[in-house]
C-alpha cells in the first residue's frame, strides 16, 4: 500500500463527508491525507478524522499535482465522449463514478442494474439508469445519484437522465466483477 503524505489545503474547499453525505468546508491550512483519486475526485482523510470527498473541480486546493491529475482525467473523458450518442458511452461514463470509500467504480461493484435509452420525439435521447447502493442507509447515496446524473448528461445526445434508486434485488458481493473482487482482496 502506498504511503500518503499529509497535505495542507491551499484554500477553503467544499467537501462531502463520508459516510454521512453531509456537505461542509475544509478550511485553508487544514491537513488532509489523500486516500484515493479516482474519476478525478479525491477522497481524503481529514486531520480531525473521518473521510471527505473533494470534487475534481476543487483539486487545486490540494496543490498543482492534484489539479493537473484532475485536469488530465477530465481531458481523457472529453476525448472519449466526442461524437454521436452511443449507449456504450453511457456505460463508459458510469465506469468513472466511484464509491468514495471503496476504490472501485459503481459498474465494477455491480451497483448498476439497468441502462436503457430511447430517442426523444424532438431529438436527443432519454437514458434510464437503475442502480442500488451497497447498503440501503448509505449516506453518500444522494451524492452517487447526482454523480451518475451529471455524468450521463455529459454523453453526446443525452437530453434527459432518469436515475432510479432500487433495492430489489438487494446488492451483495456476488454482484461485483472479478476485477473488483481481486482489487479488494475478496478472493
Provide a short characterization of the protein structure:
The chain is α+β, with helices and mostly antiparallel strands and 187 residues long.
- State the oligomer: single chain
Which value, in Å, is the CA radius of gyration?
A: 17 Å
Describe the main β-sheet briefly. Answer: 6 strands, antiparallel
Assign the CATH topology of the largest domain: GMP Synthetase, Chain A, domain 3
Shape: globular
Adjacency order of strands in the biggest sheet = 1-4-5-6-2-3
CATH architecture of the largest domain: 2-Layer Sandwich
Please give the number of β-strands: 9
Number of domains: 2
Output the helix-strand order.
Answer: EEEEEEHHEEHEH
In the CATH scheme, the class of the largest domain would be: Alpha Beta
Could you characterize what this model shows?
The chain is an alpha+beta fold. The chain has two domains: 6-78, SH3 type barrels, CATH 2.30.30; 87-183, GMP Synthetase, Chain A, domain 3, CATH 3.30.300. The chain has helices at residues 64-80, 87-94, 141-152, 178-183; strands at 6-8, 13-18, 23-26, 31-38, 41-46, 51-54, 112-119, 125-131, 158-165. A hairpin with a 4-residue loop joins strand 2 and strand 3. The chain is globular and about 50 Å long.
